[in-house]
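Lines hold sequence, tokenised fold; shown next:
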Amino acid sequence: MIAVVSNDEFGKSSLAGLRICLTEKRFERLAMAKSFDFGNDHDEIRDVATAVVSERPDVIFVSSFSSSLGTMIKALRNNGYQGVILTTTAFTVPEIQRLAGACKDVVFVNLKKSETYYEIRKIYKGACHLAGTFFT
């Protein structure tokens, strides 16, 4: 498996949670071979997707809390990746799904929550509250 996460606190937290799950062997027969991070720049996303697909992974874990999640999933598919993509529930956002295109073989996983997760949750919850957006 290759992990591809946003280069922000959400991505770092997701990667930490994934590592905990792998250590506890919550996902049978999965081990992380490499991890990559990415920002919101479309050229960077394309370049990271190309590098990831060239590694020929069986499974890719992708995490971001922004529209870049959908853009990365689409870039992976456009580069020929046809396998399973694991992601977080951030993928339930309709705009992210629209950007991703075909959602075949995209699977949500519940990660072990790291300490960073709870810190990030407070930040996002506060930001969403200020913006008038519902966040649970």
Notes: The longest helix spans residues 115-131. The two ends are 30 Å apart (CA to CA).
